[in-house]
Amino acid sequence: MKLLKGVMMLTLGFSISSTVLADVVHVAVASNFTAAMKDIAAQFEKDSEHTVILSFGSSGKFFAQIQNGAPFEVFLSADQAKPIALEKAGFIVPNSRFTYATGTLALWSTKADFVDKNYTNLKKGNFNKLALANPKLAPYGVAAEEVLTALNLKNSTQPKWVMGENISQTYQFVATDNADLGFVALSQIMDNGIVTKGSSWIIPSELYSPIRQDAVLLKTAQNNDGAKALLKYLHSDTAQHIIYDYGYKTE
Predict the structure, then answer these.
(1) Is 94 exposed, middle or buried, given 0-12, 13-18 or 19+ CB atoms closer than 10 A?
(2) What is the C-alpha separation between 167 and 172, in angstroms, rounded?
(3) By three-state DSSP, how is residue 164 classified?
(4) Collapsed DSSP state (helix, strand, coil) of residue 218
(5) Which CATH number fits the domain 2-102+212-245, given the four candidates 3.40.190.10, 2.40.10.270, 3.40.1190.20, 3.20.20.370?
(6) pLDDT value of residue 212
(7) Which candidate, 132, 191, 200, 198, places its Cα nearest to that of 166?
(8) CA-to-CA distance for 86 and 193, rounded, in angstroms?
């Protein structure tokens, strides 16, 4: 969608007009990347003539909506599988897919000292509810289940699971104390490289498969220069710094 921005300048009594064509970019963003993408989009708008409209939610729901004609132009998924599937089905601009971030999983509680690096309370079952994202819907849920399996704690903890539709809902379960602890994205509890509330354990990456998050340019954006510029901007030093500050790794 094009917006016409007119600029009028008066120089030496002459009227000089110029126009700049700016795009509106509709972006579907995996919920774990909410805070980081808000910061990136705000900076991108300052640095360009384009406007970004962000929608946040589960990658699984966006995947279905895109296949049914939802008017998104960029998709930032929480995994690789869905962008690859869209690529194979012909929904994306060829060669536009890339990994914009690799997520980090953390075990977190709002209570100070409740979570430690030895995951003592998790191991001993000293909690009422354990929050995790639904593995059938969310990549961070898959990772959480892999961690519990690797620690031989899946069966013993499963009766106490409370599952979120996505990682945002999972975070809310813990943040509102409806769960004593939960598996969340590190980005949700980190600000400027520091975990600011409660207690946490940043889970070693060898305990779960890498959470590679891919971005794609959808075919609806073939003529949208703003969408192309936004994807390019994700590679910039500015965006990379923001991504890193929220606890992600980049390639």
Answers:
(1) exposed
(2) 9
(3) strand
(4) strand
(5) 3.40.190.10
(6) 97
(7) 132
(8) 33
